[in-house]
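[Discussion] Sanity-checking designs against the backbone

I'm trying to build intuition for which residues belong where. Below is a structure token string of 610 positions. I'd appreciate it if someone posts a full sequence so I can compare it with mine line by line.
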């Protein structure tokens, strides 16, 4: 009589197990497609937007550039808000879904500005004598700015959550190769995004230049609609993590509690677990030694009065958990390294000047018999190509070859990659300055000093090296920083980790505007021609680039200091490794293949001794 019940119980268990598994590789096409289509749509609008504002809305170059700086800043600041909403209130799936709808509506509004003549200034030729060309009215600008705002809101929800949502589908701590799986995912995710941006910089821009703004803005709107539909259709397949309470509320509670408990004395012994408030399943039984003044936020002074029977604090603004304290410490700890990426983003924000350079140069693929010209806004594709090629080569060639040479698994440390990327960014600006010096001398020698719109007899292919270096810099630093934040932060902060690099780009957009305005004001005093004059041949863009190169080199030194002071990474602490020694050993094994293991150890000891 016992067998039938056992048999009947076994069937539903098998059915539940068949339904239970979610996530995995099957979800990747939907998540990556959503991100890719969003990038094709949004990035396809950026390169030529300055021309749309100048020609159709009659903005000046300075005003149009500042509007684009503000739009870029908004698109990079909103991911922080999106990350907070995702982690604490809506969850990643619903945040991405709502954001996709917002982006679609914004692109529809922008398309309407091209379709409806009454929503922008009437056509006018300022070169015709007696013509009066009016500027855009307040309602017309309101519609334009609303489109930008909706697109920025959409970016704020998709960009921080998409990467973390994809990692949720693959992240499995029980898998011994989990770290390698995530690294590969991050690389391929950025590679697919890079291909999407490449399509935007070529196909969308070509449509805008040859078929007009109506089709050029309509195609991105259709692509955004497809992105939203693809993502929502896979709803049953996704792993969806539960949201927690507001992360920033918890961080604020730590600051307040640490201040209110400032007069308490910390225990002498770090292993006095009973002195600190922590949950039963917490990995942090006691807070770390760093930033010890924050430890008072979780210090228990009277257990009966401060902790309820359920184990939770009765007054959370006076007593926090060790997890809350460590989350705030982690955020504070990464700020210096995060700030080093801002300079690289400032360098990549110089697209308006690079567009003017490309416009004034010979953009034919071949200067002998070829009539096809690369659109000036499409030169950014070389950055994307370099980024994608590095990701593919690093994942499929560098790592396997280096591992084979060493006889054990190899990977470049994340801090080493970030540093190399920042150095590449410095080289990119130095080469930009040299190329612009050559271009300007050619323009003046050919009699174009007063004609900034003339085509100088010099190939625009001279611009390719700086774009390639920018791509390598982003491949090393952007991917490296994202991986760094994601691995250093606890799971509850994963979306914020993914949005931090974008936040740095937002800060960079504002600082780029400050630097540009300062240079323009200081160099145009006493009737002098500004370095960043509207006439590219009269100005000194090369001096401006050298200034950015010097700032970038100082930033590399600043990064070395920040990286050294940060100490061991989470993975290094977990594996019992000393910070930096592993990366030094890997480099020695690759560069000095002839070293014996004992010799390498002696060299490392010598370096450490120095």
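Best answer:
Here's mine. Compare freely.
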């Amino acid at each position: 009589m016992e067998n039938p019940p056992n048999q009947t119980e076994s069937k539903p268990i098998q059915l539940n197990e068949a339904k239970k598994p979610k996530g995995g590789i099957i979800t990747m096409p939907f998540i990556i497609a959503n991100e890719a289509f969003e990038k094709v749509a949004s990035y396809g609008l950026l390169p030529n937007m300055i021309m749309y504002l100048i020609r159709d809305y009659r903005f000046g170059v300075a005003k149009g550039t500042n509007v684009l700086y503000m739009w870029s800043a908004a698109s990079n600041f909103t991911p922080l808000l999106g990350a907070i909403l995702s982690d604490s209130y809506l969850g990643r799936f619903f945040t991405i879904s709502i954001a996709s709808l917002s982006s679609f509506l914004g692109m529809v509004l922008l398309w309407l500005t091209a379709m409806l003549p009454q929503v922008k200034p009437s056509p006018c030729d300022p070169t015709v004598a007696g013509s009066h060309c009016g500027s855009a009215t307040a309602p017309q600008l309101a519609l334009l700015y609303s489109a930008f705002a909706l697109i920025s809101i959409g970016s704020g929800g998709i960009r921080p959550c998409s990467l973390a949502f994809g990692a949720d589908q693959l992240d499995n701590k029980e898998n011994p190769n989990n770290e390698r799986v995530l690294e590969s995912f991050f690389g391929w995710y950025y590679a697919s995004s890079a291909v999407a941006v490449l399509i935007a910089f070529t196909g969308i821009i070509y449509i805008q230049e040859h078929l007009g703004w109506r089709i050029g803005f309509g195609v991105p709107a259709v692509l955004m609609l497809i992105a939203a539909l693809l993502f929502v259709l896979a709803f049953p397949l996704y792993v969806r993590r539960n949201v927690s309470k507001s992360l920033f509320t918890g961080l604020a509670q730590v600051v307040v509690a640490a201040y209110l408990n400032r007069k308490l004395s910390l225990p002498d012994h770090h292993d006095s677990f009973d002195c600190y408030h922590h949950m039963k399943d917490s990995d942090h039984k006691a807070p770390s030694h760093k930033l010890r003044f924050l430890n008072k936020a979780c210090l228990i002074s009277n257990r009966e009065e401060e902790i309820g029977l359920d184990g939770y604090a009765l007054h959370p603004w006076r007593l926090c958990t060790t997890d809350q304290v460590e989350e705030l410490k982690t955020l504070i700890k990464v700020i210096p390294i995060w700030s080093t990426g801002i300079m690289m983003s400032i360098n990549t924000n110089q697209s308006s000047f690079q567009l003017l350079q490309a416009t004034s140069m010979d953009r034919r693929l071949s200067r002998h018999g070829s009539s096809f010209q690369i659109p000036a806004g499409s030169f950014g594709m070389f950055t994307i190509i370099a980024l994608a090629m590095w990701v593919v080569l690093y994942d499929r060639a560098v790592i396997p070859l280096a591992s084979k040479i060493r006889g054990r698994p190899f990977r470049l440390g994340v801090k080493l990659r970030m540093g190399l990327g920042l150095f590449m960014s410095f080289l990119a600006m130095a080469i930009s300055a040299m190329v612009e010096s050559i271009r300007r001398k050619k323009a003046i020698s050919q009699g174009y000093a007063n004609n900034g719109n003339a085509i100088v007899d010099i190939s625009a292919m001279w611009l390719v090296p700086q774009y390639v270096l920018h791509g390598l810099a982003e491949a090393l630093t952007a991917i490296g920083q994202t991986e760094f934040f994601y691995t250093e932060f606890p799971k509850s902060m994963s979306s914020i980790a993914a949005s931090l690099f974008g936040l740095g780009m937002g800060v960079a957009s504002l600082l780029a505007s400050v630097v540009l305005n300062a240079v323009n004001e200081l160099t145009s005093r006493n009737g002098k021609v500004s370095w960043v004059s509207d006439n590219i041949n009269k100005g000194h863009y090369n001096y401006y680039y050298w200034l950015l190169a010097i700032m970038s080199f100082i930033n590399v030194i600043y990064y070395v200091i920040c990286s050294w002071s940060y100490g061991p990474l989470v993975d290094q602490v977990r594996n019992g490794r000393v910070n930096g020694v592993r990366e030094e050993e890997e480099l020695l094994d690759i560069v000095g293949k002839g070293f014996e293991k004992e010799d390498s150890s002696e060299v490392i000891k010598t370096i450490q001794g120095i």
